[in-house]
């Protein structure tokens, strides 16, 4: 980058290093060329401001269980760690990269996954075991078709992400907002892994009953087991009424499973 005329200040910013370190890298490369890549300083702590004992204390604090006076391990990040080191030991590193040594190999800054307090993980696992036990005979019986079902929606959206752009110039990306979308109800065969999709206007009982009747026409000589989630229209009055009186659905067996995955977005 320096050979292309980029100033050392910009190079230091791009590689997240101090400008003096970048200067030393360039000087070493000019003197030793490729040999300068092997400095012999890998994993050493000779220039560390923190002592080994202080680092052990920091790692102990990071692994400590959550309490009223301690931050839970999963919520530590570089800014919080930086504030702690400064307050506890009076030491501030010029580069945030210098704080990475304090984090365990299995711990790194990221957003935590969301979990609804209404979900009972034990009950979900128990229900999944029950479903597997219920459909196991159907999977072995050639007279049964076992399908996993779910709704999905396709919509054109513009998503803006970070990119390398010219400094000092405004970059504009023209986007078109559209509410145009298409909903689908899909069925995945658990024996041959073939998928069938049906267009629906929206997820409701009327559209679901229409698709189920259309689906059963394809398996007139088979019994069909459908495993789907607990959407409210999957257990509505119209669904139950049609199952009890419609001959097209008399060979249909529905199994409700707990919601175990989050909403997915496709680019």
Overview in brief:
The chain is an alpha/beta fold and 267 residues long. The chain has helices at residues 8-15, 19-32, 52-63, 78-89, 121-140, 205-217, 237-245, and strands spanning 144-155, 181-189, 195-200, 223-228, 252-256.
Structure description:
It is elongated and about 85 Å long. α1 (8-15) crosses α2 (19-32). It has helices spanning 8-15, 19-32, 52-63, 78-89, 121-140, 205-217, 237-245; strands at 144-155, 181-189, 195-200, 223-228, 252-256. It folds into three domains: 1-44; 45-112, no CATH class; 121-157 and 179-256, Nucleotidyltransferase, domain 5. It has 267 residues and is α/β, with parallel strands linked by helices.
Properties at a glance:
single chain; 267 residues; alpha/beta; five-stranded mixed sheet; 7 helices; Transpos_IS630-like; Tc1-like transposase DDE domain-containing protein; RNaseH_sf; nucleic acid binding; Tc1-like_DDE_dom
The termini sit apart by 33 Å
Biggest beta sheet attributes: 5 strands, mixed
Report the sheet-strand fraction: 5-15%
Can you count the beta strands? 5
What is the second-level CATH architecture of the largest domain? 2-Layer Sandwich
Number of helices: 7
Q: Name the poorly predicted regions.
A: 261-267
Outline type = elongated
């Amino acid at each position: 980058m320096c050979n292309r005329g980029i100033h050392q200040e910009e190079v230091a910013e791009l590689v997240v290093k101090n400008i003096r370190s970048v200067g030393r890298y360039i000087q070493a490369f000019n003197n030793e060329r490729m040999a300068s890549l092997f400095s012999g300083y890998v994993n050493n702590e000779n220039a560390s401001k923190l002592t080994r004992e202080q680092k052990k204390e920091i790692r102990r604090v990071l692994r400590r269980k959550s309490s009223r006076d301690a931050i839970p391990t999963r919520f530590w990040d570089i800014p919080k760690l930086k504030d702690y080191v400064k307050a506890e030991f009076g030491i501030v590193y010029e580069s945030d990269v210098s704080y990475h040594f304090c984090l365990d190999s299995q711990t790194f800054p990221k957003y935590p996954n969301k979990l609804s307090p209404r979900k009972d993980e034990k009950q979900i696992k128990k229900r999944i075991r029950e479903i597997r036990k219920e459909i196991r005979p159907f999977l072995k019986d050639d007279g049964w078709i076992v399908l996993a079902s779910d709704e999905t929606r396709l919509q054109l959206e513009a998503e803006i992400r970070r990119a390398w752009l010219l400094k000092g110039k405004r970059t504009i990306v023209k986007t078109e907002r559209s509410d145009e979308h298409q909903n689908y109800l899909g069925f995945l065969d658990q024996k041959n892994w073939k998928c069938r999709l049906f267009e629906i206007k929206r997820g409701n009982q009327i559209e679901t009953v229409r698709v189920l009747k259309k689906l059963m026409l394809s398996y007139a000589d088979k019994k069909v087991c459908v495993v789907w989630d607990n959407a409210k229209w999957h257990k509505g009055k119209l669904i139950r009424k049609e199952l009890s009186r419609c001959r097209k659905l008399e060979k249909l067996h529905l199994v409700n499973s707990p919601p175990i995955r989050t909403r997915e977005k496709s680019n």
